[in-house]
Amino acid sequence: MGDKVVLPSLSLPKQKTHWSVAVVIIAGIVLLIMGGALFAILHRQQAEAEAITKAASNKVALAEAEAAKAKADVERAKVEKEREEAEAKRKEAEAKALAAAKKASVPAAPESEQTTLNRLMKKNKKAKTTASSSNKPVQAGAPSAPEPAKPAPKQKSKESVDIDKLLQGLK
User: Fold this and answer.
1) Taking the CB of residue 120, how many other CB atoms lie within 10 A of it?
2) Cα separation of 159 and 120, whole Å?
3) pTM value?
4) CA 51, CA 150: separation in Å to the nearest integer?
5) 95-104 pLDDT, tens per residue?
6) Which of 9, 29, 90, 125 gives 20 to 30 Å between its CA and that of 139?
7) What is the C-alpha to C-alpha distance for residues 64 and 159, in angstroms, rounded to an integer?
8) pLDDT in tens, 110-163
9) What span, in angstroms and rounded, lies between the C-alpha atoms of 125 and 128?
10) b/e string for 76-95 if b means 16 or more Cβ within 10 A?
11) How is residue 1 annotated by DSSP?
């Protein structure tokens, strides 16, 4: 076992590879290049299809979001309208209750200034016409009858003072 084994050399001098081996090697390389190109084309097409699908789904999602927002706005407007109607009904009920309470506590509603003024002017006209018709014609030279004493003036209420001021302003 001490002897070394010498293996024969596989390269033979002046011997070339057969041309069919070169064709097979070249065909394999071409097949690899074509497979890579086919893979790249298919990958690009798949990416484009996914992009189109994603864009369509985004459009659908956006449309659904806008529809949901519009629906929410309609619902919000409806709720706001109902709230306003309820508020109006509540205020109306409060006003009716207040009016009923006011009517119960105050027997007669106060007259407006214009109504009071008109009523007083009618009384004044009646008083003037009554006073002028009760005067008897006085003959010339005859002593005139003494005028009756005027009753002491009553204390005026604030309302009558205000009315007197209004009447003086009209003169």
Assistant:
1) 15
2) 12
3) 0.35
4) 109
5) 888 888 877 7
6) 125
7) 70
8) 556 777 777 777 777 776 666 555 555 545 555 555 555 555 555 667 777 777
9) 5
10) eeeeeeeeeeeeeeeeeeee
11) -
Task: Quote the tokens at residue 86.
Answer: 């309820």
Dist CA 26 CA 21 (whole Å)? 9
* Cβ neighbours of residue 111 closer than 8 Å, sequence gap 6 or more: 119
Rounded Cα–Cα distance for residues 52 and 143 (Å): 123
**CA dist., res. 66 & res. 162, Å (int):** 65
Instruction: Locate 88 and state its tokens.
Output: 């109006």
Using the structure block, give the residue that is written with the tokens 């001021």: 165
Token pair in block for residue 14: 């002046």
The model's pLDDT over 33-81, given as tens digits with 9 standing for 90+, comes to 999 999 999 999 999 999 999 999 999 999 999 999 999 999 999 999 9
